[in-house]
Amino acid sequence: EESAKKGACGNPMVERRKQASYLGLMSCVDADLGWLFAALKAKGYWDTTMIIFSSDHGEQMGDHWLQGKTGFFDQSYHVPLIIRDPRPVGDETRGFPCNAFTESVDIFPTILDFLGVSPPSQCDGFSLLRLI
Known about the structure:
This protein is mainly alpha-helical. The protein has four helices and two strands.
């Protein structure tokens, strides 16, 4: 769709600058995660550390003539949820996507389950360990 290519402001040069800035920020996150992972490995924690990577909202980036976290489109409400389970039991599913419906409230019970702690009765969400 032509409007999606132009972005929210309709000026392709402005949109390219926004995309370049966004990609620059993602590069910083990537570099920082590389540093963190190297430190975990150097300290001997890599094989026992669960890593969870997620976001609170998506980004339109000019799609549908919108910017930011607005609108009822996939770009706004589909967010990443990447969980690295260091246990050998996770080897079978490691690297494969899961299409199950999950929610942010599932992260806390997942961490508790990983630690062998029962969630409090008022805790919303469910452990995702069975999926990873």
